[in-house]
Amino acid sequence: MKTLTVELGSRSYPIHVGQQLLGNAELLTRHIRSRQVMVVTNDTIAPLYLENVRQQLSDFDTASVILPDGEQYKNLDTLNTIFTALLEQRFNRDCTLVALGGGVVGDITGFAAASYQRGVAFLQIPTTLLAQVDSSVGGKTGVNHPLGKNMIGAFHQPGCVVIDTDTLDTLDDRQLSAGLAEVIKYGLIRDAGFFDWLEANMAALRARDKQVLAYAIEHSCSIKAEIVAADERESGQRALLNLGHTFGHAIETGTGYGNWLHGEAVATGMLMAADLSARHGWLSADMVQRTKHLLQQAGLPISPPAEMDEAQFMKLMAIDKKVVDGELRLVLLKAIGDAIVTGDFRAELLGETLGLAS
Question: Domains of the chain, with CATH numbers?
Answer without folding.
Answer: 2-170 (3.40.50.1970), 173-357 (1.20.1090.10)
